[in-house]
C-alpha cells in the first residue's frame, strides 16, 4: 500500500470517527423569540422544542436524545413540544416511553419515519398513537391555561400532510392568546394563509445531517433545496422554529449538523396582532 493510500484510509477513518462523535454532540440552545402581540402575561413563557429522535436503531443519536431529555427535565419549561420521527424501529418503544414519561406538559406529533413512509431501508412502522403522559396530536387541537391566558396547540398528522390534505389553520382558535402549530414538516408554513399561527415548530431536515459548509452557508445533502436547516424563519403564516433534531437516519453520522434541543423564550412585542 502506498503512502498516499495510507493517508487516504487514515483520513477516511478520522472522518468516520468525527461523524460518529458529532452525532452524539448535542447543542443545548436557549433562544429569545420576540412575538408581536404576545400578551405581557406570557412574556417569558418557555417552550422546549425537540425533534427527530429516531430511536430503535443503533446510533450515538440516542446519547443526544438522553442528554436533551435530561436538560429539559431539569429546566422544567412551561411546555414541551416534540415534532415527530420518534422511532425508526419498534424496538425503541420502551425507551421512548421511559424518556417522554420524564417530561411534563408535553405535546407530540408523529413523523413520516414513525409510519415507515421513507426511503430509509432501516425504518419499520412503529407509530405510537398514545404516549401518556405525553399527548399525541393527530390533526387535533388542545388548549391549556398558562398565567391565566389561553394557549392552543394544533398538531398535524404526517399522513395528512403527505397526502396534501393538511389544513391545521381550520383548527386554529382565533380567540386564543397564543396559537402554536406543531408539524414534523417545515413545508407546512407554505400551505397556510397569513397569520394562521403565532409560532410553528417543525423538524425533519436534521440540518442536512451531512453537510458541507462554505462562506455564508452550507450544502445540506439530505435536503438540497433548503437554504436554512435550523433556527427561526419568519413566514406570512407564522414564525417557524426549525429544529436540527437529535437522531440520525440512513447512516449513524452527522457532519457539520450537530444535534440540538432548543428552549424558546417567548418575548412580548407591543404590536397589534
Report what the structure shows.
The protein is of the alpha/beta class and 273 residues long. The chain has one domain: Purple Acid Phosphatase, chain A, domain 2 (4-Layer Sandwich). It is 18% helix and 28% strand. The protein is built from four helices and 14 strands. The strands form three sheets. A six-stranded mixed beta sheet has the order 1-14-2-3-4-5. It has a six-stranded mixed beta sheet with strand order 6-7-8-9-13-12, with no helix packed on it. A two-stranded antiparallel sheet has the order 10-11. Strand 10 and strand 11 form a beta hairpin. The longest helix has 21 residues. It is globular and about 70 Å long.
| CATH level-3 fold name | Purple Acid Phosphatase, chain A, domain 2
Helical content class: 10-25%
Strand order of the largest sheet: 1-14-2-3-4-5
Largest sheet: 6 strands, mixed
Sequence stretches where pLDDT stays below 50 over 5 or more residues: none
H/E series: HEEHEHEEEEHEEEEEEE
Number of helices: 4
Structural class: alpha/beta
Radius of gyration: 19 Å
**How far is the N terminus from the C terminus?**
68 Å
Backbone shape: globular
Total strands: 14
Mean pLDDT: 92
CATH architecture: 4-Layer Sandwich
CATH first level:
Alpha Beta
Strand content: 25-35%
- Our count of domains comes out at 1
Give keywords.
single chain, 273 residues, alpha/beta, Purple Acid Phosphatase, chain A, domain 2, 6-stranded mixed beta sheet, 14 strands
Amino acid at each position: 500500500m502506498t503512502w498516499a493510500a495510507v493517508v487516504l484510509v487514515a483520513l477516511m477513518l478520522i472522518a468516520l470517527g468525527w461523524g460518529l462523535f458529532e452525532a452524539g454532540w448535542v447543542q443545548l440552545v436557549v433562544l429569545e423569540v420576540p412575538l408581536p402581540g404576545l400578551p405581557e402575561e406570557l412574556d417569558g413563557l418557555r417552550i422546549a422544542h425537540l425533534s427527530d429522535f429516531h430511536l430503535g436503531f443503533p446510533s450515538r443519536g440516542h446519547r443526544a436524545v438522553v442528554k436533551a431529555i435530561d436538560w429539559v427535565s431539569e429546566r422544567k419549561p412551561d411546555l414541551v413540544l416534540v415534532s415527530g420521527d420518534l422511532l425508526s424501529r419498534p424496538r425503541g418503544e420502551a425507551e421512548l416511553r421511559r424518556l417522554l414519561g420524564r417530561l411534563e406538559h408535553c405535546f407530540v406529533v408523529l413523523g413520516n419515519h414513525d409510519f415507515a413512509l421513507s426511503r430509509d431501508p432501516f425504518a419499520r412502522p412503529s407509530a405510537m398513537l398514545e404516549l401518556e403522559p405525553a399527548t399525541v396530536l393527530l390533526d387535533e387541537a388542545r388548549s391549556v391555561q398558562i398565567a391565566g391566558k389561553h394557549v392552543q396547540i394544533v398538531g398535524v398528522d404526517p399522513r395528512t400532510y403527505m397526502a396534501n390534505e393538511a389544513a391545521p389553520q381550520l383548527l386554529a382558535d382565533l380567540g386564543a392568546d397564543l396559537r402554536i402549530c406543531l408539524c414534523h414538516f417545515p413545508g407546512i408554513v407554505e400551505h397556510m394563509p397569513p397569520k394562521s399561527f403565532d409560532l410553528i415548530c417543525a423538524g425533519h431536515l436534521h440540518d442536512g445531517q451531512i453537510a458541507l459548509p462554505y462562506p455564508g452557508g452550507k450544502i445540506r445533502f439530505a435536503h438540497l433545496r433548503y437554504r436554512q436547516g435550523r433556527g427561526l424563519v419568519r413566514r406570512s403564516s407564522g414564525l417557524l422554529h426549525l429544529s436540527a433534531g437529535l437522531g440520525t437516519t440512513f447512516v449513524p453520522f452527522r457532519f457539520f449538523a450537530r444535534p440540538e434541543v432548543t428552549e424558546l423564550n417567548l418575548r412580548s412585542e407591543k404590536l397589534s396582532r
